[in-house]
């Protein structure tokens, strides 16, 4: 055997042994498959369907187990009970943000999705309060959604009932709602700046969901030295941030602290209020990153859900007929739907929930991390350990949702046809994060 190969293998084994001693010195991690040097358990995971791989491992090691993603271990929570115990009952201890090198390169710890600690709490609290308070003497978020829905319907009418691919239009609508909240105004669907922004956001979502990005996150050294689609993410993100910064400067020039127009105005006012408090949360960097996060989290996820929803309604005409009957009965044809209608439309509410459950859009939530050394189910998990949560295992739990692979709005209806809440409904996250869904 070549001497260089032997040297690499020896160094790899020593490195893995060192890592094992480091973890075992802090406590006993949950069981899991034996990792390979450097690669960890990567070869035992299908990068195109990691959720299924984790489900298979849970059958061997139970609902709490450890996998090595490259050199670093991560604790996996599989199933509702384990996730509830960790993220809801012990939410503070599991409230840290897991290590995601690609996201850290883009946002540098700023924003609302990939940050953690006090900064995250401050930005999250401010964002929730600001979004909830919209409508206090101004146009509410609901009104903005209704306006965009009318614009979307008008664009669809222009097709004259001929076959069309609605992907583009269904992407424009949610992005425009966010633009209205962040920038005050919506854009025409032909506006070149709006189209470029939408293109960059959608391309980043597709790339960040690819197996290659999972490889980059597990082996971050590749990011700096290899070509690949990850570089496109950096370029697109730079464009989006530049566009947002331009809008922020426009807002600064016309800001009236007594009459905030949108999210940017509210943030700028908060920055001014906190400037003497050495408040690290309310900075230009955090403003730009937070807006970028709101676009990234709300555009492609919503448009994809709408696309799948249309496909499922086409595939299940009996469901579509019941929804239409309920719409005609409650809303009729003379006005736009509103949130107050929801309580009188249990079947439609159930269909919306079932669409999100069935498509399982985000099989694994954004990684968590434990904020201190903790004991969890007789295992000792060290501070900073990444925690992965399998949302698929909850959304497709066959005890809560009989025949989970079947699209059935009855999963969210009781025997009387009333809408039935389910604690297992967590299409994006659970615990503290769920409040931002």
Automatic annotation (TrEMBL):
Pfam families referenced in this protein's UniProt entry, alphabetically: p450
Enzyme class: oxidoreductase
UniProt EC number: 1.14.14.1
InterPro entries: Cyt_P450 (IPR001128), Cyt_P450_E_grp-I (IPR002401), Cyt_P450_sf (IPR036396), Cytochrome_P450_fam2 (IPR050182)
Membrane topology: Peripheral membrane protein
GO molecular function annotation: heme binding; iron ion binding; oxidoreductase activity, acting on paired donors, with incorporation or reduction of molecular oxygen, reduced flavin or flavoprotein as one donor, and incorporation of one atom of oxygen
CDD domains: CYP2C-like
Compartments in which it is found: Endoplasmic reticulum membrane; Microsome membrane
Cofactors demanded by this protein: heme
SUPFAM superfamilies reported in the protein's UniProt record: Cytochrome P450
N-terminal signal peptide: 1-25
A GO cellular-component term linked to this record: endoplasmic reticulum membrane
Keywords, ordered alphabetically: Endoplasmic reticulum, Heme, Iron, Membrane, Metal-binding, Microsome, Monooxygenase, Oxidoreductase, Signal
Family: Belongs to the cytochrome P450 family.
Protein name: unspecific monooxygenase
Organism of this sequence: Sus scrofa (Pig)
